[in-house]
Specification:
Layout (H helix, E strand, L loop, with lengths): L13 H8 L4 E9 L11 E13 L2 E12 L2 E4 L2 E4 H6 L7 H5 L5 E12 L4 E13 L14 E3 L1 H4 L1 E10 L2 E2 L5 H7 L16 H10 L3 E13 L2 H22 L3 H9 L23 H16 L3 H14 L5 H17 L9 E4 L8 E4 L5 H8 L19 H15 L3 E2 L3 H8 L16 H4 L31 E9 L2 E5 L7 H4 L4 E4 L8 E2 L3 E3 L1
Parallel strand pairs: 15-18
Antiparallel strand pairs: 1-2, 2-3, 3-8, 4-5, 6-7, 6-11, 7-9, 9-10, 12-13, 13-19, 14-19, 15-16, 16-17
């Protein structure tokens, strides 16, 4: 392989490296709120709540995870009718309603929050912002287990009213000369007015606020709204009222009328035990069947056995769809499973499925080589020699540094990326299961499928500009040679595919070269993959 030894020198990078080493990846805080209800209106079950709030940098974007632990009132009032849990539990005629009472959960809660960002280096809060937190499908009152999913957005989509500068109260900036050096590193300017969202690099500056903060604090939080499934409340009021009317007639000895009042012209299916002598009058599943499925679902849920829990929540809902809780839990679990199975969490790294054969297991491969933009969003720096091209492949990275990138990418996304083996690389380059026997990835015409020594003019080019191979994968031939996971011996690794500096023989699919794992060149980069 012909190489251009245009290496990035260590000097001149010291200050950037020191800032990068200090970059924050994840910050957490919590806050509490009290629910209030207007006089004369419905009084729902939420009394107070604690919100655990986490911000995580995910491939340069803002990932937010929240979970809510809320406490329940002992009673609720709906349509001017009060239902008390203790009274239900204390009367054998109403005890079947207690589990339904406990099943009432909010379908959405929205909070308005003011955040302050603190720096240990500056020894002060140096920025403040407002954000809105929306949480779907809350757990039961008192529950603490929930799937860990992140909503991912641009920083500017979630943070508003940004003030930069020394602050003891949000938005009240005290001019301080000592802050200038610290803010200069983040390309921020102290200001007593809000940051202008239209300014160039606004999103980048917001990300820098986060990555240079050592902690975040919530200094103001309030509940904007809590949305409930009103049918849950309506059903309990209706069922309790029906039972009260029926029991009053029973007390007078009119059992026939009592039965008629309870079963006729019903708005909702009744909750009836299979032990009840009037069970034959119902068409729905007995409450024992529903409760068994729901209890099994809750047990699996607490153990974080999501697939099993989802099956039983759906089963419980099929038995009795009156209460929203089982369906909400099933939806939440499916959203989590979809999140974990998403091969492109941030919309930044496209993956292509490679169906396996008897020698190679199926896997997912990066549609392109990892670009300078992708590297910078994960690592916070750009080590490339050919800077100024965000869509060009990152280069000048050693095998060891690639492992650091993959480790951090996995931490940020919660997924498991890795480098391919040599066998996987060649299998994908040839087009997979039904691929061709062409010399290069995508065909035998080197110019059509790659940037190489004959057409690249000694530089990298944007990924995806040449023709892809049969699987829709770009640049497996040329542009930059790609690190793979195989090692020649304990001190060497392989690169495959050739680069912009290579002639045809070194760009062939079978060609490879062994290099030391700490070796760096402007002609060597990489692409990532995932197991199926």
């Amino acid at each position: 392989m012909r190489k251009l030894f245009l290496m990035a020198f260590a000097f001149g990078l010291t200050s950037v490296a020191s800032v990068s080493a200090q970059q924050t990846e994840k910050l957490s805080t919590s806050f509490t709120c009290k629910a209030t209800y207007p006089k004369g209106k419905n009084i729902y079950l939420m009394d107070s709540c604690k919100v655990n709030y986490t911000i995580k940098k995910i491939v340069g974007k803002m990932g937010v995870h929240t979970d809510v632990e809320w406490t329940s009132r002992p009673d609720f009032t709906y349509n001017k009718i009060k239902v008390d849990r203790a009274q239900l539990n204390g009367d054998k005629n109403y005890q079947e309603l207690v589990s339904r009472f406990d099943m009432i959960t909010p379908k959405k809660a929205t909070f308005a929050v003011t955040l302050m960002f603190y720096s240990d280096r500056a020894k002060t809060y140096f920025a403040s912002a407002k954000t809105t937190i929306e949480i779907n499908y809350l757990e039961k009152a008192g529950a603490t287990v929930s799937p860990e999913t992140y909503t991912i957005n641009d920083w500017s989509d979630k943070l508003t009213d940004i003030y930069v500068g020394k602050q003891s109260k949000p938005g009240v900036v005290t001019p301080d000369k000592s802050m200038k050096e610290f803010l200069d590193l983040m390309r921020l300017t102290e200001s007593t007015t809000k940051m202008d969202p239209s300014q160039r690099g606004y999103n980048y500056r917001l990300r820098n606020i986060f990555t240079n903060a050592d902690k975040i604090d919530v200094v103001d939080a309030k509940i904007v709204s809590v949305d409930w499934n009103d049918d849950d409340y309506d059903f309990l009021v209706y069922e309790a009222t029906k039972r009260k009317e029926s029991l009053a007639l029973m007390a007078k000895g009119d059992s026939m009328k009592a039965s008629e009042v309870y079963y006729s012209n019903r708005k909702y299916e009744p909750i009836i035990s299979m032990k009840s002598p009037t069970y034959w009058k119902t068409t729905g599943a007995p409450c024992e069947i529903f409760d068994k499925a729901l209890n099994q679902a809750d047990t699996y849920y607490k153990k974080k056995q999501w697939n099993e829990a989802g099956i039983y929540y759906n089963q419980a809902y099929n038995y009795d769809s009156t209460m929203a809780y089982p369906k909400q839990q099933a939806i939440k679990i499916q959203e989590y499973i979809d999140y974990k199975n998403n091969r492109n969490v941030t919309g930044l790294i496209d993956m292509v499925y490679v169906e396996g054969n008897h020698e190679v297991k199926s896997f997912y491969i990066g549609k392109t080589e990892v670009t300078q933009q992708q590297w910078a969003r994960v690592m916070g720096t750009n080590p490339s020699n050919f800077k100024g091209c965000r869509t060009c492949p990152v280069e000048n990275v050693s095998w060891d540094e690639v492992q650091q990138f993959i480790k951090k990418l996995n931490e940020q996304t919660g997924l498991k990326y890795r480098l391919m083996s040599e066998k996987e690389w060649e299998y994908a380059a040839k087009g997979g299961k039904n691929g061709s026997k062409s010399a290069f990835a995508g065909g035998d015409n080197l110019t059509e499928v790659s940037w190489n020594a004959y057409n690249a003019e000694q530089t990298t080019h944007g990924v995806g500009e040449k023709a892809p191979n049969e699987l829709g994968i770009y640049d497996m031939t040329g542009n930059v040679a790609e690190w793979v996971n195989n090692q020649y011996d304990k001190t060497t690794r392989f690169v495959k595919g050739g680069s912009f500096a290579d002639e045809a023989s070194n760009c062939a699919i079978e060609a490879k070269e062994k290099l030391k794992p700490d070796y760096k060149s402007n002609s060597v980069g990489f692409r990532i993959c995932q197991d199926e």
